[in-house]
Amino acid sequence: MQRFKKIRVPDEGEKIIIEHDKLLIPDNPIIAFIEGDGTGPDIWSASKLVFDSAIEKAYGTKRKIYWTEIFAGEKAVKVYGKKTWLPDETVEAIKEFTIAIKGPLTTPVSYGIRSLNIALRQLLELFACVRPVKYYPGVPSPMKHPEDLDIVLFRENTEDVYAGVEFQSGSKETDDLIKYLNKKFDKNIRIPSGIGIKPMSQFASERLVKKAIEYAILNKRKRVTMVHKGNIMKYTEGAFKDWGYKIGKSYFKDVIITEEQLINGEIPEDKILLNDRIADSMFQQLLLRPKEYEVVATSNLNGDYLSDAAAGQVGGLGMAPGANMSYTTAIFEATHGTAPKYAGLDKVNPGSVILSGVMMLEYMGWLKAARLIQKALTKTIKSKIVTYDFARQMKGAKEVKTSEFAKAITQNME
Ligand code: NAP
Question: Which of 144, 164, 1, 167 is nearest to 68 (CA)?
């Protein structure tokens, strides 16, 4: 198995196998991790302690994760040499081990890619960004009832205005493109203008909505809401919604029900409601009627805004977990950045990576360990033992270091 140059795969532990789109998780899986830059190492060692303790508490010696370190970001440059921010074997290892978890990575300045996270998503075709947003009691929140929000957001990762098809204002190619569009399609775009193209395909829209519905089925959620701006952008956002309904009503025809088919607004026990909301209205809906939403499927730009706004309702990005997934590969990750000013200070909140690990354990079907962590984390925050970010918002809190917070969580595992 030691075919990598710098990655040391443990002798014990087995690889996760995928058979007919299903994960076969051994009791001793090898899982890859990237500790991350800046505050990443502090956060990773705290998170690993929490994961290993929960697994041991839940399953004794029957189950254990064999962690394998893989490299990206500043540590990759240290290990592999100059400019190697994302070694090929890191991408190969993620493909091989199927599941990876990572801390935040520095965005390299003047390197050929926009960010390492985007590069990983593209190289591995991780088409869905999955962000659960749920309240943990005790976390400071600006809402009166933050506990009413409990959604899982699926954001399309590969298309939309983020596809990078942009043309700079004033360049000859942009002016030529504008002249062509104005003439051929009778448009009236000013010269000079910057131009961006917003591709949205049936293929990518359908696979995203399908993944969201599959999640709802697996996790017994009753509603999937497609969020779009189809009232204005009919052939992109509107098409996303239409393709979503199409796949819902065909591929999941025995399960899906739409709003027009409901009687007295009741969702039958064996059905999942597939509906849609206009993006601007959805921001209001999540504030005013959060209980009406469970799984959200949306395009790239809408999803970017909506996931951070929703995270704000339950206390901010410090505790927001995330994952990027394809059919076969998943990377679970912190949603915040490297917070470089706190690097090495053992100070920041490891909550985002810890909860990403909870998502990972759920994805693996190791629910007992996942619940242990959720409960212990809640208990720790409720007892006001928190890192600096929460301490400054909570009266009577005891501020602890990253490592002490993790230790307190393990002590609160029952
Ligand atoms: P950032 O690292 O997220 O930090 C911004 C602020 O958020 C921090 O100063 C801190 O606020 C707070 N914060 C971040 N992480 C925290 C944690 N774990 N616990 C408590 N508070 C936390 O954003 P940035 O400064 O814009 O970006 C720094 C680097 O990270 C850049 O290279 C950027 O490209 C990269 N980045 C990576 C990812 C990723 O890998 N997923 C995501 C975003 C950014 P206070 O100062 O108020 O305490």
Answer: 1
Contacts of 292 (CB under 8 A, 6+ apart): 223, 285
Token couple for 342: 């706190």
Clarify whether 162 is annotated catalytic: yes
Query: Which are the contacts of 402, defined by CB distance < 8 A and separation ≥ 6?
Result: 39, 42, 43, 46, 346, 347, 348, 349, 350, 387
∠49-53-55 over CA atoms, to 5°? 125
Nearest CA to ligand 1 atom 32: 106
Query: What is the value of pTM for the model shown?
Result: 0.93
Asked whether 279 and 229 are in contact (CB, 8 A), the reply is: yes
Active site residue 280: yes
Q: Coil, strand, or helix at residue 257?
A: strand
Contact 385, 398 (CB under 8 A): yes
Rounded to whole angstroms, the Cα distance separating 160 from 240 reads 11
Cβ atoms of 204 and 127 closer than 8 Å: yes
Which token pair is 140?
Answer: 């400071």
Residues 311-338 have pLDDT tens digits of 999 987 778 899 999 988 999 998 899 9
Q: What is the pLDDT of residue 8?
A: 95
Cα of 351 from ligand 1 centre, angstroms: 13
Helix 300-313, helix 279-288: angle, nearest 10: 20
To the query of whether residue 304 is one of the catalytic residues in this protein, the response is: yes
Nearest CA to ligand 1 atom 43: 337
**Helix, strand, coil percentages in the chain from 3-state DSSP, rounded to 5:** 45, 20, 40
Our CA angle for 272, 266, 296, nearest 5°, is 40
Alpha-carbon gap, residue 109 to 207, rounded angstroms: 33
Nearest ligand 1 atom to alpha carbon 336: 3
> Which residue numbers in the chain have pLDDT < 70?
1-2, 110-114
Using CA positions, which residue lies closest to atom 7 of ligand 1?
Answer: 339
Contact 16, 55 (CB under 8 A): no
Neighbours of 326 (CB within 10 A): 18
Question: Best mutation site among 35, 105, 129, 338 for ligand 1, i.e. most ligand atoms within 8 A of its Cβ?
Answer: 338
Q: Is the dihedral of CA 344, 312, 330, 353 positive or negative?
A: positive
- Match 């470089």 to its residue by tokens: 340
